Amino acid sequence: MDNQIKLRSGVTIKRTDAEEIIKNKYLTRHVMSKMHLMPTGDPVAFDVAPDGNIIYYFDPTKVTEAPPETWYFPNAKRETMTLPSGSIIERMSVKNAAARGYYPADKLQRMNYETVEEPVAYTYKADKSVLYFYDKKTAKRLPLMCVECGKQIRYRRKLCVDCYERELDLRRREGDAHRSAYYGMDRARVLFFDLELTGFYDHDEILSITIVDGFGNFIMDTLVRPVSTKSWKKTEEIHKITPEMVKDAPVLEELKPRLKEIFADADNVIAYGVSTDYSHIKHIYDDAAEREEFHKKIRCCANEFVRYTHEHLPEQIHASLTDAMSCFGIEWEGVAHSSIADTLGCRKVWEVLFPNYYCN
Ligand SMILES: [Zn+2]
Q: What integer pLDDT is reported at residue 76 of this predicted model?
């Protein structure tokens, strides 16, 4: 038995001795019950009885009158039982016990607690056998077990170290097969794109579009003049596109035919964090069928990077384009966070993740 116990509240208490008990006038549960008192706080110390049970000691200044149900009927006969240690415990109903936080050992076990103290109350079961109640407050919280094997303590994802490693190894092998597979894509028909916007919401407008193919050729790189937004101070700080810069640029409507043509010729269209880009670029299509057709070609580089980190770098928690690039030692080309630099960065990250993507 250790010389200290960590209580459920997080407080650690020490094993005490007779001298200290007298000096501090510590009270046991047994003594308190004889005085019709109950503790208001955690025990402050403990000792181990010869039978191995733990005896908790309480601060005499932190006690209160025992619950009223024992006082409403002063003439009611109170049944008690004396435990081998000499402690006297009271009979009470399961309901009354639960109201004080006392439970049978098997109930506590299901709540993932182990009893270390002697019982604090009891009742009789239907078959006349004794059912003891234990105080949940002083029961020991057991570590959570692995959901897979149920034998070892949890480590990550509700699994023990062994089960976690086995599961990770399986996922990693699947992921590696997915990434190293030969996709036979034509570099001319794989496009990477990025948009810069006036803001972060769906009603915000496109300010620039960059599209490059798998060879790194620029298929489109243009500023776009928003129709209804006049200024965008917040995003301007990120992408550095000013209202002055776009005043002579084409509006999205004018670019639609060319964009449709470009995407029609593509097999895959890849972006980093594609959902935002898609929710804006989809407006070039007027009908749902066209949008659906386009959506099938979309691939998200961020999703693939996140999957890679889950399998190979569980400690990596951030997955921005900047994180992905620095993870693979890729340098920015041009101004970071411009649609050009983001598109080129996205292409390089994709090609590290999928080294056998192309046929040419
Ligand atoms: Zn396990």
A: 56
pLDDT (0 to 100) of residue 72: 45
Ligand 1 centre and the CA of 169: distance in Å? 14
Checking if the pLDDT of 31 tops 80, the result is yes
Cβ burial of 317 (10 Å; 0-12, 13-18, 19+) is: exposed
Helices (H) and strands (E) in the chain, counts: 13, 19
Ion ligand 1: protein residues whose beta carbon lies under 5 Å: 146, 148-149, 152, 160, 163
What's this model's pTM, rounded to 2 decimal places? Answer: 0.64
Q: In this structure, is the dihedral angle defined by the CA atoms of residues 221, 222, 228 and 230, taken in order, positive or negative?
A: positive
Ligand 1 centroid from CA 311, angstroms: 18
Give 150-159 pLDDT, tens digit per residue: 888 888 888 9
Please list the residues that pair with 113 across neighbouring strands: 141
Q: How far is the CA of 143 from the centre of ligand 1 (A)?
A: 13
Q: Which domains are assigned to the chain?
A: 4-141 (no CATH), 144-180 (no CATH), 181-353 (3.30.420.10)
Q: What is the pLDDT of residue 1?
A: 57
Q: Where are the alpha helices (DSSP H) in 153-241?
A: 161-180, 233-239
